[in-house]
Amino acid sequence: MANKQQDPVDKSNKFDKIIKENMVECTLPFIDSLFNLNIQPNDMVDVDPQIQSTQEREVDFLKKIIRTNGAKDYLLQIEFQSKNEVRMNARMAEYYTFLNRKYDLIVKQYVIYIGDETMTMLNYTQHEDFEHRFQIINIRHKNYLEFVKSDIPEFVILGILAGFGQDKSEVAVKNILQRIVTITNTNQRYKNTLEQEKYLRQIDVMSQLRGLQGTIIKILKNMDITFDITKDLRYQEGELVGEAKGEARGEARGEARGKAEGEAKERNKNILKGHSKGMTIVDLADFFDVSIEYVKDVIKNG
User: Fold this and answer.
1) CA 190 to CA 164: how far, in whole Å?
2) Of 48, 124, 163, 211, whose CB is crowded by the most CB atoms within 10 A?
């Protein structure tokens, strides 16, 4: 995704975490929809995604694909980019070289661009004695309905980043949210769990890439869906305090009593709670997308 050496409060951290977490569940539909590769569940084998060089790197997604029809096995590498990286072609060439040397396998490489600005990255490196190519897929060129028809919530969530075709954004967002609600309400796997809230909050975070946070909140309110952050066990453990939760609850419930005041109060309260649970100042600034100085001030006056 974005360069791993990033500012501690870089927003792309949030998108990176969600996508990496969800790829475990939606690998096959993702591959079928975007790459047209004939891969079955038993064809994939976990391999170490870390690359040792002068600095340690870790690719976003890496699997060994086992072929049973006489074709050669290969590595499948997927990187997610929320921003244009000027030398992405050089980085992918570096990845190919190290992965090929480490595993002695061909590497099929894909970059999935999920950003909002026009994609400008090159998908090749070509010099007099060296040439390397990989595929870049702009998720906006895929219709969101391809994601909505899935029964896998993690895959449906990615629809918020796809193209909406002829549908207005409000219609597309509602269809995506309704699909998540339908799956989690009817599939026995999600009964009596917090998964529905988790997925809806993830959509809220991912919607920032398209400036649709307001639309998400408005539609959720009309769907009569209410988040209660305090019921989330990870919140109680101080692991998931942050903008994704404070914004969802603060905007959904705080408009009547003053949106700005309600959000600030809730954010500061959660900063103090996270700090009491042992979270560092840098981690708190990352979660809440505020400056380190802001966090220090809240703790000092808390």
Assistant:
1) 28
2) 163
Kindly state whether residue 250 falls inside one of the protein's structural domains. yes
pLDDT digits (tens, 9 = 90+) for 155-173: 999 999 999 999 999 999 9
Residues 41 and 84 in one domain: yes
2 within a domain of the structure (yes/no): no
Burial class (CB in 10 A: 0-12, 13-18, 19+), 111: buried
Cα–Cα distance, 258 to 247 (Å, whole number): 13
Residue 143 per-residue DSSP state: B
Number of domains in the chain: 2
Q: For residue range 187-205, what is the model confidence (pLDDT) as tens digits?
A: 888 776 778 888 888 888 8
Question: 39: which 2 tokens?
Answer: 């891969």
Rounded to the nearest 5°, which phi and psi values hold at 152?
-105, 110
Residue 226 banded pLDDT, cuts 50, 70, 90: low
Q: Are residues 296 and 278 in the same domain?
A: yes
